[in-house]
Each structure stands twice: as C-alpha cells, then as structure tokens.
Design a protein that fits this description.
Elements (H helix, E strand, L loop, with lengths): L1 E2 L1 H8 L15 H39 L4 H18 L1 H9 L8 H34 L1 H7 L2 H19 L1 H5 E6 L2 E6 L6 H41 L5 H31 L6 H17 L3 H9 L1 H23 L11 H5 L8
Parallel strand pairs: 1-2
Antiparallel strand pairs: 2-3
Helix pairs in contact: 2-3, 2-4, 2-11, 2-12, 3-5, 3-7, 5-6, 5-7, 5-9, 5-10, 9-10, 10-11, 10-12, 12-13
Length: about 350
C-alpha cells in the first residue's frame, strides 16, 4: 500500500510506537541523539544474537539429548527453545534499524518477526511461572507433588504453555502490517487508521493484555511462591538445594530486570503518546528498553554456567569428550570410532540436585 507522506503523518498518531519516526521533523541535535540511541539498541540486538545462538544451542543439546530427562530439565529446555527461536530472527531487527527502519522483507516476515518476539516474551514468563510453582509445590507439598509431578504431566503443561503463549501473541499476526511511504516501507501495528476510537481501544487492550499476562500476574505469582517458599522452609526446616534455588531465582531476576523497562514504557505510551513534550522520552526509552528485553534471550545459558558449578563440570566434560573423539578419528583414520561416554554426564542433570 502506498500513500503520500502527508497523509501518513496525519494518520500516524493513531499507531503504536514502533520506532518509525524517521519521517517526522527533528532538529539536528535530536537526530544525532536518536541516531546514537538506535545504534546502541542495534548493538544490543547483535550482542543478544551472538551470545544467544551458541548459548541456547548448547542448553538445548545438553538438556534435550545428553542429560537425564527430568521435570526441571524439561522446563529449562523449553525456555532455551523459546529463546533460540527468537534470536534466529534478530538479524531482521538489526537490518531494520540499520536500514533506517526500512522493511524490505515483506508482509509475512513482518508479521512472523513480531509474533516470534511476542511468543518468546509470553512463553518465557509463563515457563518461569511454572518453574516457580513447580519448585514451590515440590518442596512445600511433597506428597501432592510426588503424585502428579511426572514427565507425562509436565509435557502436557509445556504444550499448554506454548498454546497459551501463541494465543496471547496471536493478535500480532493480525494487526502487524507494512506501509510504503515514498519508497520507504515500515512494519507497524495497523489498528485501523480510519477509526481513531477503535484504534485507541485496540491499542489499550493489547498493551494491557501484554502487561498483565506477560509481566504483572506472572511476576506476582513468582514473588509469592518464592517468599512463601523461603518462610515455609525456614519454619519447617525444609532442606533446599541452594544451587538449584539460586539458579532459578537468578533467571527470574534477570527476566524482571530485562523486561520491566519495556513494559513500563509500553504502559506509559498510552498516556504520553499524544503529549509532544514527553515524546522524546518515549523515543529514547523504547529502543533501549526493547534492546534490554531482547538481551534476556542470551542471559539464561550464561546464568546456568555462572551459578551452577555442575553445569560447568558437565560442559567441560562434554567438550573434552568431543575433542578426544575428534583427535581419535584424526589419528586413526578408517578404523571403528572409539566410544567415549561419561555415565555422570549422560545420567545426571546439573539442575537436578534436590528434585
């Protein structure tokens, strides 16, 4: 669809902020400031991609193929899958910013790219919520947990989480659209440009759904679980695996730090978008908060390594096994490959200490 820039600017104030301010009039100082902000955000995208691809691939390989299948490894495996799928699409975000917010990839990639970001956000926070509830019931209500905490039931929960995350992120597939303005194509939220009231209603509804179900309710649930868990454990002298506890807690805290600014700006946008005196805050804050949110997709594997010493040991053992295997094949061409296995590496999970 191609429209004049004048008509586009007239309608643009009905659209959600998605960094497409290239066509507005800025003074030289503001252009420089926004340019720096956008470059910083792009560097955050690149960092998330460079660290996220190998990091999440390693987690998927170990938890999906090398270690003993447990309920806890299943949760973290799904977290890694969500992050890995998302970081695969990050080069599209990088290209979009580098091309001054020109989207040459077509309508369907515009929809898919935004949907994957929403799917990652909802699935990550929902799996973190499930992990918190699982950890709480396992330690505080062990009889109930032992009866129902099985791999089969956990797989059902995992499928439900993916379906719910897809449902919550689904509107993106419908509303995301492309628009051409003087040979410059943008990927934006088309909430219905000819009906301002409907536009505002849809914008508010999707923003609050994202904030409530993708941040506030899960965060409250996780906070209540961990606070109750700590108090109950001290009161009943319930033994807790400190390594596992701090691993899970560090992942939750990382999610909160990375996603809080993004959600705050999303809600703030509803009230300040039409206030020109505060729009510069939105224009500066949204790119940085989005980059910080994306950075969360590469942090979990780093946290596993930093917090969990067993993960480090198993990782080094697996790397040593691969190197030894490769050296054997190089030094013994044409012979049957020697089998190098480690019972501990194959049968134990570094996250499975008290569970």
């Amino acid at each position: 669809m191609e429209v004049s820039e004048e008509a586009f600017l007239e309608d643009f104030e009905n659209y959600s902020y998605t960094l497409e301010y290239y066509s507005q009039e800025f003074d030289a100082e503001e252009k420089t400031h926004l340019g720096i902000i956008h470059w910083i955000s792009m560097l955050l995208y690149v960092l998330a991609f460079v660290l996220g691809i190998p990091g999440n691939a390693i987690v998927i390989w170990f938890m999906g193929f090398k270690w003993k299948k447990t309920v806890m490894t299943l949760w973290f495996l799904n977290l890694a899958i969500a992050d890995f799928i998302f970081v695969l699409f990050l080069p599209l975000y990088v290209s979009y910013v580098a091309l001054s917010f020109h989207w040459p990839f077509g309508l369907w990639l515009c929809k898919a790219n935004s949907f994957i970001a929403q799917l990652n956000m909802f699935s990550s926070v929902l799996f973190l919520t499930v992990i918190s509830l699982d950890h709480y019931f396992h330690l505080v209500h062990p009889v109930l947990s032992h009866r129902h905490r099985t791999l089969k039931n956990s797989l059902v929960v995992a499928v439900f989480v993916w379906l719910l995350a897809s449902l919550l992120g689904g509107p993106t597939l419908y509303y995301r659209d492309t628009l051409e303005v003087n040979k410059h194509i943008i990927c934006y939220n088309n909430f219905q440009e000819h009906d301002p009231e409907l536009t505002m209603l849809r914008h508010h509804a999707l923003t609050w759904v994202k904030f409530l179900f993708g941040y506030l309710f899960p965060l409250l649930t996780m906070s209540v679980c961990y606070l109750h868990l700590i108090f109950t454990a001290k009161k009943r002298n319930i033994p807790m695996s400190s390594k596992q506890f701090w691993t899970i807690l560090s992942v939750v805290i990382a999610f909160m730090i990375c996603w809080t600014p993004y959600h705050l700006f999303s809600v703030w946008e509803l009230s300040i978008y039409h206030n020109s005196s505060l729009q510069h805050v939105l224009k500066s804050g949204f790119p940085l908060s989005t980059g910080l949110a994306f950075l969360n997709s590469c942090l979990n594997p780093i946290l596993y390594v930093l917090v969990t010493k067993k993960f480090q040991a198993h990782f080094r053992a697996s790397v040593a096994e691969v190197v030894k295997h490769s050296m054997w094949e190089v030094s013994h061409p044409g012979t049957v490959t020697e089998q190098f296995t480690s019972a501990e590496t194959k049968n134990l999970s570094p996250l499975e200490t008290a569970t």
